[in-house]
Design goal:
This protein has about 260 residues and is mainly beta. It contains three helices and 15 strands.
């Protein structure tokens, strides 16, 4: 059980999406400072945890304007008693959200604790991954690459329609892959804020490790509202140990511009 939660809860929370910004993207993105999304996480029928994703006020990084996204995940109830998860992630991008600048993760899962900092050097097309304060990996990167969290917001810039396929570069600092996502169509989805129409997006998880790699019929889907906000309202995985879902239970729109 500990191994399952350690592998799947953070993966569900990170929402490893794979979609690049394109020339057809809207000039004004569907997100902005002040936006907040909260989620319930279930393992089969057990309410295992909660997650929150926010777009923070615009800031600066090394003197340049930057966007800051923040995410937090935690276990609840009896799950929290025997395997406590307290994960925090922060991601900085340029204001247009075309590439990552910096990614930080503070991972606390049971007795396991680790801090990671991933610095992207766009001029050199490289990234530098620090773990526990020490440089662990230097990796050559493509021109535009996203970390596992900011890729979500790059995806939301896209106009979705059935049959659309996305390919994009995403990296955790250890490897850099081209991931693929497919829009399968629109479905009714029940959420904590009511029933919504949402695009069902299937993610290619062939490059993912852990529980997904060991499950023959593993799958990962994300649903986005079929409106101009394209809010991620549900994530669902199927692995050998059962079904995990993450469902929106609260939404606050961006601050007025």
């Amino acid at each position: 059980m500990r191994k399952m939660l350690s592998a799947v809860l953070p993966l569900l929370f990170l929402l490893l999406l794979v979609a690049p910004p394109s020339a057809g993207s809207e000039p004004v993105p569907p997100f902005g400072p002040g936006e907040r999304m909260s989620y319930d996480i279930h393992w089969t029928f057990i309410h295992a945890g909660t997650a929150e994703l926010t777009c923070a006020p615009d800031t600066e990084l090394d003197g340049a304007p930057a966007r800051l996204f923040r995410a937090e995940a935690r276990t609840l109830g009896w799950v929290d008693t025997f395997y406590k998860v307290r994960d925090t992630m922060e991601a900085w991008t340029d204001l247009a959200v075309t590439h990552s600048l910096l990614y930080k993760k503070d991972q606390n899962e049971g007795s396991y604790h680790k801090k990671v900092e991933l610095v992207f050097d766009k001029a050199a097309n490289q990234s530098y991954r620090y773990a526990r304060g020490k440089l662990q990996h230097t990796l050559d990167q493509p021109r535009d690459v996203f970390d596992p969290m900011s890729i979500l917001f790059a995806f939301r810039k896209q106009v979705l329609y059935k049959g659309l396929r996305f390919d994009a570069n995403v990296s955790d600092g250890k490897i850099s892959v081209v991931g693929t996502a497919y829009v399968e169509g629109v479905e009714k989805v029940e959420t904590g804020i009511g029933e919504v129409d949402a695009h069902k997006v299937r993610l290619d998880i062939s490059h993912l490790s852990g529980v997904f790699k060991k499950s023959r019929d593993a799958e990962l889907y994300v649903w986005f509202t079929a409106d101009e906000r394209r809010i991620p309202v549900k994530v669902r995985s199927k692995v050998a140990v059962g079904h995990f879902t993450m469902t929106l239970n609260g939404y606050r729109p961006p601050d007025p511009r």
